[in-house]
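Researcher: Let's walk through a ligand-bound prediction step by step. First, I give you the protein sequence. Second, the SMILES string for pyridoxal-5'-phosphate. Third, you return the three-dimensional complex as structure tokens. Ready?
Model: Ready.
Researcher: Here are steps one and two:
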Amino acid sequence: MSDWEKYVKKLTPYVPGEQPRKKDVIKLNTNENPYPPAPGVQRILEDLDAGSLKKYPDPTVHDLRCALASYHGISEDRVFVGVGSDDVLAMSFITFFGDAKKSVAFADVTYSFYDVWCRLFGIEYERIPVREDFSIDLNAFDGDRGGIVIANPNAPSGIALSPGEIAGLISAHPECVVIVDEAYVDFGGESMLPYIDEFENLLVVRTFSKSRALAGSRIGYAMGSKKIISYLLAARDSFNSYTMDTITQRIGIASVEDDEYFKKRVSDIVKTREVYGKKLKDMGFSFPKSAANFLFATHEKMDAAGIYEELLNRGIYVRYFKTPGIDNRLRITIGTDDEMERLCIALKDILGI
Ligand SMILES: *Cc1c(COP(=O)(O)O)cnc(C)c1O
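Model: Step three, the predicted complex:
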């Protein structure tokens, strides 16, 4: 090992789902939205003026924060915006957990970036085992904590907790910040947003990547008490003031302003989830009740790894985790009806039914 390598931080990074270069594949592996973003986003892109890029973007992301604040009925100083919720979450981990003297708790089956950030930032953490049915056991979060992170609905299970249950958890933990990652809440979960007045230590994190079909633009945000948001803003301005570019700020506003389109597309996806969930069950699959835009499925006869490979051979990408405990499951993103139909045809072929 060369001298300088002794000082390098050795990391095991998060492995995102594949983004295939081939066209003509059915991509049901990263929980992207199968529909385009709001038409207003298209208009922003068509009207772009390259000259506007000679200036730095608004470092406060004022207009987008105001649009989000007004959408959610809160004041702008209670909204923090970042480059995808991964950026918001990473910033939150370093801000609220970076100097914690106790371990940060999250479920052992949840978004697998949480432990990656903890290791990057040198934060002690404890993974709390989920129940056999993958549901989160909030009682097991007992004890003094340096922080708590709950994805609700959880990934990759799709299972939602009720806001009341999470409120109970926050009441029991006034000593630390509780982050609720609501990446999938629009597809059937219930938000913790109504509780941000009651709990100063609650941070609700959202993304435009799934329900708003803007994964490529990288927009995430957090809402909470004025105090908790002010700490995040201070951290961001100690790191990089210009995280979000000018075009993305405008795209975000166009998306928020078209609520009718947003609600229609979300309800289309929920309908497809219910219709094709039933068809998958008829084929011998089972999965927890999903409040998200994916199903966490296992098959009664064929193992998940085999189905994954066979689907891949047919140009259909779903997510398979080799992780012990979930290695006989496929996380299948809900696509359009047409994509789901083609998935079903391929599955029947693979399963010989
Ligand atoms: C997709 C996802 C994110 C990250 O979303 P981005 O906004 O695209 O960074 C965060 N948390 C969970 C649980 C997710 O599934």
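Researcher: And what stands out?
Model: Residues 31, 84-86, 111, 151, 155, 181, 183, 207, 209, 215, 220 surround pyridoxal-5'-phosphate (CB under 6 Å). The longest helix spans residues 259-282.
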